[in-house]
Write a sequence for this structure.
């Protein structure tokens, strides 16, 4: 089973709202990722958690705040977003234990900021 | 200079033909390679991974890796209209956890 789940599927929010995206996997993977993807572009890495510790933050604005409560869960807290933040937000996970590693993507959350 | 290069296409092939998707890469990402298929509005789905020089076959899909030429390709035999999608090539350094470098993706259109 290589399933990564994400909720919600769609989210519409105003620029003053606070919302959260959730991601879950039960494959025992120790690395989890957030990506942002705009139309006709490849996924753009935002954050990497390895063994529940933030390992990579690709200079993402502070209005995006990641959280990894445990090895199965990954959240992305959103606050004071801008319309240009509208995109498909993808979560992925991988074994994260060295050597060849494969990322599996969740279905994504389509975010619209009004 | 980008580290994983793909022709953005579209690549148009008739149903039943072989579709050939190509990707070149720089040294930094020269360990593992992945092909993901992405339908419009959906998330990337892993099609193939390849780590060693040569060919790897899975059903209608064959991945080919040539590390000397820094070239990786995906062949799709007996192409179907349902194969119409964007195909993302990605390389990884194998440095603990995965750190994928994506190409821009090639759009494939298979006409009935």
């Amino acid at each position: 089973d290589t399933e990564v789940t994400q909720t919600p599927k769609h989210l519409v929010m105003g620029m003053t709202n606070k919302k959260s995206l959730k991601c879950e996997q039960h494959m025992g993977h120790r690395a989890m990722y957030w990506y942002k993807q705009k139309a006709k572009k490849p996924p753009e890495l935002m954050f990497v958690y390895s063994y529940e510790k933030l390992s990579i933050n690709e200079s993402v604005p502070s209005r995006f705040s990641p959280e990894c409560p445990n090895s199965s869960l990954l959240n992305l807290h959103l606050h004071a977003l801008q319309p240009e933040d509208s995109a498909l937000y993808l979560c992925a996970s991988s074994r994260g234990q060295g050597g060849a590693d494969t990322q599996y993507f969740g279905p994504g959350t389509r975010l619209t900021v009004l | 200079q980008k580290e994983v290069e793909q022709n953005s296409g579209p690549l148009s092939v008739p149903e039943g033909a072989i579709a050939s998707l190509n990707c070149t890469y720089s040294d930094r990402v020269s360990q593992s390679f992945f092909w993901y298929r992405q339908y419009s509005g959906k998330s990337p789905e892993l099609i193939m991974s390849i780590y060693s020089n040569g060919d790897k076959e899975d059903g209608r899909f064959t991945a080919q890796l040539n590390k000397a030429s820094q070239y990786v390709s995906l062949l799709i035999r007996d192409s179907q209209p349902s194969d119409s999608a964007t195909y993302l090539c990605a390389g990884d350094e194998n440095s603990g956890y995965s750190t994928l470098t994506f190409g821009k993706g090639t759009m494939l259109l298979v006409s009935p």
Summary: The two ends of chain A are 37 Å apart (CA to CA). The longest strand of chain A covers residues 18-25. Chain A has a mean pLDDT of 94. Chain A touches chain B at residues 2, 30-31, 33, 41-43, 45, 48, 50, 55-56, 88, 90, 94, 96, 98-108, 110 (CB under 8 Å).
